[in-house]
Amino acid sequence: MSTEIPTATVVSPPQPPPLRKYRGGFHNSICSIFTDPTRRTDCCAVACCGVLSSDRTRYLLDGTRPPPLWRRVAIYLVIPSLLVAAMNYFAVEVLVDESSQADNNKSTDDLFGVDSGPRKVAPLSLVLCFWAYLVVLIVYTRIQRQATRSEIMKRLYEERAAARNEEVDPARLRLFLEKNRGDVTAAHRACCCYGKDDVFFNDDGVSTLPNGRCEEEEIEGDFCTSLWRCLANTFWASCCACWCQCCSICAVWQEEMEVNRLTGSEEHTMDYVTFQPYSEYYPAIQALKENQTTNLVKHWTTLSELSVKLLKSMFLVLAVLLLFALSNINQNFTWENMIVLMLTLGQAFFIEYLVHWRWCKFDLSFDAVVKYFACGFLLTTPMAIAFEAIISTVASLLIMAVVVVVLGADEDMAHELQSDPKVALKDFAMKYQGIFIVYVFINSFIVAAVTEEMVKYFGYWMVVTPDLLPENRSSVPSSSYNSSDEHDEENTAPKKSARSTGAGITVAMVSVALGFACCENLMYIFVYSPPSIGVEISTLVARSLFPVHPLCAAIQSIGVCKRDIEGDKKYGLGRIISPAVLLHGSFDFVLMLAAFYQSLKATSSDEGADENQGEASDEVTSEDLAAELPSLVSGLVFVIIGCIYYGIASRAQNQRLLSMDQAATDLELLV
């Protein structure tokens, strides 16, 4: 009879949890940005090329605060502006000899409206200084971000060593950092291809996803997730199996996610930029709401440090512009232009007053309104410009390819294009109107509507304020509610009602849209329009008559409230922005199409202008007004339709939110 010899049981040291590791030891793939619609860090990493996210990451990592705002304004705005102004001031006019140009070059210049007269050329030394300064800024930013990534890798190595009860060996740590030096360099280039790390296995051999979750735990994405995956899989993943990123946006997001995990800062408890905790200023704001204080001065005194800095910066910029206008340094910006600028700002502030202070001052704090408006003005506008430039370039290339194919099949049109390009372009537009209509459709619905509505949603989503934090919202009450916890009730602020939260979301999204529209109006008035007071005022009036951006933002807020308050998880980003995109795209499509046919009509009337030029001015002006009237009426019709849609949908939603509040009140009384 055999006896079993007992074996000693070997107790292994505690092992770290089976978390997945990516290159450099990160717990999130660099390719998994925008895979989780509930994350706000994704949008913050895109804004300003990740500057805000990088600042917050460094602060959480080692307590390093970013440079003062005035220094950043001087480095990133004032000095480049001074260099550009110096190039314009010291530019020398160079006469272009028209006789030395070939006939085809002259016709091409006429076709695209290029002036062949005197041209200004900046001194080469100033041009080199400008570009050298930009290169220095890029290199300096890259060095800072690489140092942050190396420090995060060091913390990850120390975390794994502590989980295994091992001491950190400095030699092995240096070897680890040296081994991953290439990863640090590749992650923070201006534009690079980073080796993809989206297919890994955890310790149990279970296939996992780029967002660090197992297949059964995958979070359903939204429209932005699908768009991002389509873009990545179409171009870069299929070509070189790499992840292409610009300005290290994806790496910045990955680092912020990792630092949030290391420091336990997944929940936002402080502002960006100033890093002031909510607990320092929000109790005073909450007290004003509870007391129903309507004194604007008292609301002003409770502003956070970030809002105060934003307002002070605005007043400082306006003061500098006023001195600049009164000094007559530049004839293109005088005191009359300053008045137009103030009217543009006043139009946005007046609508903000009606939307917030007149009706919803206690649903969203004045502090939050300042932040949302500033985000729309400063962050969403550059994002929209960048995205629209990329999409517009791709759309233009596709249309140009179609035009080339059509010209290859139409030999007569091709010969006419070589002999007289200007007339040929008009004939081509008249003969193939469908191509231009498709181009107008792409520009109005995809380039403008989809991009701008998505960016405005990002502007709302990336701003985190205590007013709209989940713990301050009242949702459908659960059975675990206990009214006997009197001590807890004394130390916590009362939860907002569903109706008040919905009104706050609407005001927040409209504030972002007003900031975006204000900046866009300034660009249309002072950049895209001729330097004429009459044209600037007419542009301001025309754009003020059609407040499409705030109206579309209000329509978006209905979907956001259905998702975040009513709990309808079917409302992703696509369903939220679809009604706004339809209204915005239709509005732009009608105006762009009317402008296209008006330009064709104007081109046709130019042939007989030389015969009766003395009477042409008045007749053309009356014809222009008559031609613009249908487009203006159509735009007004779309605005009215949007207002009616929002009124009906908002009233129905308000009834549902009131029912939720009543149900919560009844349950409290029963308990």
UniProtKB/TrEMBL annotation:
Record's keyword annotation contains Membrane: yes
Pfam family, one: PrsW-protease
Transmembrane feature ranges: 73-92, 121-140, 310-329, 335-355, 376-409, 429-450, 505-528, 540-561, 573-597, 629-648
Superkingdom to which the source organism belongs: Eukaryota
Keyword vocabulary terms for this entry: Membrane, Transmembrane, Transmembrane helix
Classification via InterPro entries: PrsW
Region ranges (Disordered): 475-497
Keyword Transmembrane annotated: yes
Protein name according to UniProt: Membrane-associated protein
